[in-house]
Amino acid sequence: MTISLSRAIGSVFAMGATPDGGSFLVQLVPFAIVLAIFYFIILMPMRKKQQKVADFLESLKVNDRIVTTGGIYGQITRLGDQTVQIQIADKVKIEVAKAAIGGLQGQEPVQEMAGERASQ
């Protein structure tokens, strides 16, 4: 008799309903697990990367040698709130958005370069 009772209970759980009426919780648990996995695999690393980029952009100073995400090499001559003026050759200065700075010359890029995004 216990074998048939356990089979009956097992079939009830398999259909998504529990004897005490907790079918909503049974359906909610896998959804919560998927959301937790999504957060830890995708959102948390993305937030860490965004924080790393923001910290890098805040630490920029005049005379830093940088590379933009478009591949332009230059030296910072002036910092603004949203823009940076860089000297790319003698008497040639351009103004670029701070967000377009990919990293310091000779170091690992902090942001993806424009060509890397297009190839993916």
Strand and helix map with partners:
Layout: H1 2-14, H2 23-58, E1 65-68, E2 73-79, E3 83-89, E4 92-97, E5 101-104, H3 114-119
Antiparallel strand pairs: 1-2, 1-5, 2-3, 3-4
Description of the structure:
With 120 residues, the protein is α+β, with helices and mostly antiparallel strands. It contains 3 helices and 5 strands, in the order ααβββββα. It has a 5-stranded antiparallel β-sheet, with no helix packed on it. Strand 3 (83-89) and strand 4 form a beta hairpin. It is rod-shaped and about 75 Å long. The N and C termini lie far apart (60 Å).
Question: Could you name the key traits of this structure?
Answer:
SH3 type barrels; single chain; 5-stranded antiparallel sheet; 2 domains; alpha+beta; 120 residues; 5 strands; rod-shaped; 23% strand
Q: Structural class of the helices, strands and pairings?
A: alpha+beta
**CATH level-two architecture of the largest domain:** Roll
Distance between the termini: 60 Å
Strand arrangement, major sheet:
4-3-2-1-5
CATH top level label of the largest domain:
Mainly Beta
Number of strands: 5
Order of helices and strands: HHEEEEEH
Can you describe this structure in just a few lines?
With 120 residues, the chain is α+β, with helices and mostly antiparallel strands. The protein is built from three helices and five strands; from the N terminus they run H-H-E-E-E-E-E-H. It folds into two domains: 55 residues, no CATH class; 59 residues, SH3 type barrels (Roll), CATH 2.30.30.
